[in-house]
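Subject: design request, 256 residues
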């Protein structure tokens, strides 16, 4: 199966990728679903909705502070690095992630230490970034270096609204510019890699479907079967931290 995936990748010039929590699992970031998943222990409607924030902003901030703390201690893994290693194989490459952990960005920055991160325009963080903040009322971004004190939540400098994490919560729209571009990139891709996502949350899970409708070959990498598995051209079962470096190594073998 891996040979088939390498063959498809080798013959494609335009590659789009969608990642989910599974790619960060080997960095010890908890996934959402499954036995050990966050949504097995916590209720999303009490922590990841605007209603929850309005009703109890303290609890929501405590939860996000805990996740920020956890994410400060983690590093990208071999899967994150392998994706950037693939970039040079293609004429056009777009990495779209549902993850808010910033590990794709961190992996890129550690490879490109002298380059400003503003050039990283082929990374689309569909669900936002856990380290960013914005106003609940006017949406103005709020740069704060300090942790948020849940008992004294900072206010927006522009309108006085409460500051919230700049991530997409249940029931919220994704940033229209970001999701529109994600669909355009998906439709233009010749190969679409889906890595470590349960493919249950839309619109992200619609991206590979759209890509396939427009002619892309879909390659799925996941420990388990998902709703996409049957529809993918190739499914590779296993850990992304092992399979992705193997793909890169075989691709480089061809290019050598
Ligand atoms: P999930 O937790 O739903 O799914 C994680 C997927 O990764 C599962 O299909 C696992 O089988 C797979 N997996 C786990 N470890 C893996 C590994 N080492 N290698 C390969 N695959 C592995 O996470 P997402 O699909 O990312 O939304 O969830 C989507 C969205 O739901 C999240 O972005 C979040 C959540 O609610 C928001 O916060 C808006
Ligand atoms: Zn405001």
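Subject: RE: design request

Done. Sequence follows.
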């Amino acid at each position: 199966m891996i040979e088939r995936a390498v063959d498809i990748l080798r013959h494609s010039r335009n590659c789009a990728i969608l990642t989910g929590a599974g790619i960060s699992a080997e960095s010890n970031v908890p996934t959402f679903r499954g036995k050990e998943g966050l949504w097995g222990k916590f209720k999303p409607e009490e922590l990841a909705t605007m209603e929850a924030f309005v009703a109890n902003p303290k609890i929501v901030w405590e939860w996000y502070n805990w996740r920020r703390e956890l994410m400060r201690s983690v590093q990208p893994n071999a899967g994150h690095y392998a994706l950037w290693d693939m970039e040079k194989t293609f004429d056009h490459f777009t990495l779209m992630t549902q993850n808010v952990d910033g590990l794709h960005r961190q992996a890129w920055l550690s490879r490109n230490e002298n380059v400003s991160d503003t050039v990283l325009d082929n990374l689309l963080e569909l669900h936002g970034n856990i380290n960013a903040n914005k106003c609940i009322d006017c949406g103005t971004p709020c740069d704060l270096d300090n942790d948020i004190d849940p008992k004294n939540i900072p206010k927006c400098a522009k309108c006085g609204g409460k500051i919230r994490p700049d991530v997409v919560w249940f029931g919220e729209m994704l940033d229209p510019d970001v999701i529109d571009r994600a669909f355009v990139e998906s439709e233009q891709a010749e190969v679409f890699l889906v890595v470590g996502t349960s493919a249950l949350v839309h619109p992200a899970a619609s991206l590979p479907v759209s890509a396939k409708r427009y002619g892309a070959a879909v390659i799925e990498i996941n420990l388990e079967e998902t709703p996409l598995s049957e529809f993918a051209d190739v499914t590779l079962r296993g850990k992304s931290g092992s399979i992705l470096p193997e793909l890169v190594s075989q691709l480089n073998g061809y290019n050598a």
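The radius of gyration is 19 Å.
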